[in-house]
Amino acid sequence: MTTNRLKIFNGKIITPRGIIPEGTILIEGNKIISVGQSNTDFPHATVINAQGDYISPGFIDIHVHGGGGYDFMDCTEEAFLKIAETHAQYGTTSMLPTTLTGSKEQILEVLKVYETVNEKNSRGSQFLGMHLEGPYLAMNQKGAQDPKYIRDPDPEEYKEIISRSGSVVKRWSAAPELKGAIEFGRYLKAKEILPAIAHTDAIYEEAELAFKNGYTLATHFYSAMSGITRKNAFRYAGVIEAGYLIDEMDVEIIADGIHLPAPLLKLVYKIKGSAHTALITDAIRAAAMPPGEYILGNSKEGMKIISEDGVAKLPDRSSFAGSIATADRLIRTVINLANLPLTEAVKMMSSTPARILGLSASKGELIAGKDADIIIFDDNIHVRMTICNGKIVKGEEHASY
User: Fold this and answer.
1) What is the pLDDT of residues 285-303, one digit of tens each?
2) CATH entry 3.20.20.140 includes domain 59-356
3) What is the reported pTM?
4) Which CATH number fits domain 5-56+364-400: 1.10.443.10, 2.30.40.10, 1.10.101.10, 3.40.430.10?
């Protein structure tokens, strides 16, 4: 339901400076106009009693492929809208829809659908632009990406894709050791698109060069990514070591407790901290769905995968195939497995991804003047209400009109 004025009170507000007990937030239109401890009178507002639960900035998922039985590679408006609605139920208030490897024609078709559907998305997570994952990836680190589409960066191709998609593309993940990948990164940076290191066999020196040329984010850190290797008895550090050693490099992690077990979650947090670590779902169509067989990518041409044991796998179980996590699960996992404080966990899925995308001025924190992207959840991170850009998209029954 669309409302012009909202008042949320009697909740523990998670702010950059700590938690405000028995706090109140006032919203007008799509903006927060007040955050404080007093139960301020706000005439003609819809009133929401948080009942002592947490009031949190909405989760920002900068890497998500699908959910609720749909994949963005389906290239339909229905898929885009249903994925946005699905993840809003679990606290994601904004997202970067993400592609898989594909032909130029497939990529252009996904971008075309985004342009037509973006303004129609009124009941789900807000779209922040597109994230292209591939097709410029290392074959040896393909993971569940379809190998028939993997190729080196082609200037004629990527320039056409970017020119025909306007400002839709916000991020592009690639392997920086490929022929032409450094020039590709410089081109993206010049177009204000974020280059990210992904599905890569790069050694440290190649990753360092990539960072200097715009590749400031490591895509699903540890997954499909080089670590220490040996060549003719000599050891070479990889992208994982670069992610740790380059202080300003950001990393994103699939914090489902399966892609990265507890010791690695703790290590990432210990070295990179919440300021340089974003939590992502990397969710596929099987997210928020029962276990079983699904298709990764386009429903007609994609690859078969299995959803079981809380994760997605290739049929031969040789590799994970994205994840089936939702945002609430990520927060629970890093709190329970890695022993992170709630405020740090929330930061890794709100203000940190907002900063990575250059959106700190408008998103990621509960501060007056920022977008009203707000969720209410209990001690177990079960989401009771989701408000996207000032609109209640989950939990209307908790509001008094």
Assistant:
1) 999 999 999 999 999 999 9
2) yes
3) 0.97
4) 2.30.40.10
